[in-house]
């Protein structure tokens, strides 16, 4: 790959492609690393590269431990380079044609054990507005498995505390009805009957969870709450607001819930998305069996 071609290509993507600064930096880094790989393997003419060379390079990245997303981006970078060469009549055929990106990895979500959930949910303590509100929020999140965006968007009207369920409107769907457990109901009633009223300034405000100013709690505010109680709990795991959603799903499946029911409660349109939680259970079972049976486990 000649320096002249590389310089002209970099100038092209800087001025004509309209890439974000991060994507631009990644593309330049990727194609520079690819050039170094070609030189190392005695391929000095980038116009002579064929499909086999590119596939071998992608396999090299995989063996080097690069993430699937990184390999996919590298292929996109290389494809952009060879389309540039093709459009400028520097090659007669694009060697990346019909090359597919590797399938994304199915990452097993980070979950908490039931004991760790108990520890985390016990962190809000006392009778202050913040403690009661946070306790109600965390209990509701674990009781229903709803998304952070959904719990922030909840209005008081979404709850039916007498019958013990909440309703959510899904885009293009009729909505979801999700049962609420007795523990979460207890803390929600306590919050609504007294503490929410303490900060409520506008009686027209429908938001369920309020901040000190009487306005709807923001997503950023909820993240801060999770970080605060994670630190206090001393649980040696990365905990995000989504962790309780993951834990909700896995604990239901562990206790015999069928995957279709869990899918409906989580609001997944595709059951394959829900099946990742089954993999988490199977993976844990495998580790437990190995520890119990292998003589050097």
UniProtKB/TrEMBL annotation:
Pfam families: Phage_int_SAM_1 (PF02899), Phage_integrase (PF00589). It comes from [Clostridium] ultunense Esp. Its main location: cytoplasm. Transmembrane segments: none annotated. Forms a cyclic heterotetrameric complex composed of two molecules of XerC and two molecules of XerD. The active site is at 147, 242, 245, 268, 277 (o-(3'-phospho-dna)-tyrosine intermediate). Keywords: Cell cycle, Cell division, Chromosome partition, Cytoplasm, DNA integration, DNA recombination, DNA-binding. GO terms for biological process: cell division; chromosome segregation; DNA transposition. This is Tyrosine recombinase XerC. InterPro entries: CB, DNA_brk_join_enz, Integrase-like_cat_sf, Integrase_catalytic, Integrase_recombinase_N, Integrase_SAM-like_N, Recomb_XerD, Tyrosine_recombinase_XerC/XerD. Residues 1-86 form the Core-binding (CB) domain.
